[in-house]
Specification:
Helices cover 5% and strands 36% of the residues. By secondary structure, it is mainly beta. The protein has one domain: Roll (SH3 type barrels). The chain has a five-stranded antiparallel β-sheet. The chain is elongated and about 50 Å long. The model has no long low-confidence stretch (mean pLDDT 92).
Length: 77
């Protein structure tokens, strides 16, 4: 019997839901919505929202946590 893959949990990521982030290169401000799974390969990915445009984005967890985003100073995790 095939085992069901483990789905991402909010506690699996470095950034918790509602954490506000700044993109180091562009200075853009974002809010983490959740940690989800990419359908094609079930890799964990963050869903996040631009605080300027309110567009939603999805980025693999490894990219979000590689230093290109930093927690806003008023945020603690």
């Amino acid at each position: 019997m095939t085992q069901k893959p483990r789905m991402a949990q909010a506690s699996d990521g470095r950034f918790a839901p509602n954490t506000q982030l700044r993109h180091v290169k562009t200075g853009g401000l974002y809010r983490v919505v959740c940690l989800a799974n990419i359908e094609a390969n079930l890799a964990p990915a963050y869903v996040y929202e631009s605080l300027q445009t309110h567009d939603f984005w999805i980025r693999p967890q490894a990219e979000m946590e590689d230093g290109r985003f930093v927690v806003m100073p008023s945020q603690t995790n």
